[in-house]
Amino acid sequence: MTLTTITKSGVATMDYPAVLQATAKRELIAQYLDYVRAMVSVQAGNTKTRGEVAGSGIKPWKQKGTGRARQGSTRSPHWRGGGVTFGPRTDQNDANPRMNQKMRRRAFLAVLSKLVKDGKVGVVVDTEITPKELRSKLAEVNQSNDRLMLVAADRLATPLKGVSNLKDAQLYSVNRFGLQQMMGKALIIFDNAAFEQLVKRYS
Fold first, then answer.
1. pLDDT band for position 197 (50/70/90)?
2. Which numeric CATH code is attached to 2-41+96-201?
3. Which strands, in side-by-side order, build the sheet including 11-15?
């Protein structure tokens, strides 16, 4: 398996590190995607029950003799300003996915390896390449006009910073790069430091 490399002199290939190669069943990848989505989701809503909403709990009128329907409290859910039944509660958020590290690593590497096979991953190995030269090389690599997913070890000191303002380009730190960034039609470009950090992490 080979990996696309980008230098001043042109576009070439190099052997893809064996440590990053993996395969996984579709079910495992789907499970990992559900895990990631659950971990980043935020339960912001927190409604109040009839016992928490502000106001008096006094009986609004006597039980019999008024001709009205019997009522026990103006804080009941069917009253305006009353509590909410079965509303979202942060203390009852049971989104607690479980997936061990070995399974997560395998799923991540399997998706990355598949993208490498499809020619959707490249590494800028030349740290001295100028933004103009890099734009030209990326245009050569990105023949299908995919959106660019740029991954850097340091977003403030990377050759990728000069092309991060291209249309549909996003610059991520390697520590923030995960399965969600690999989903969808995108060309993933690492700088050399970020790719070396990735190899070290999974070695």
1. very high
2. 3.40.1370.10
3. 11-15, 2-6, 121-124, 186-191, 147-152, 169-173
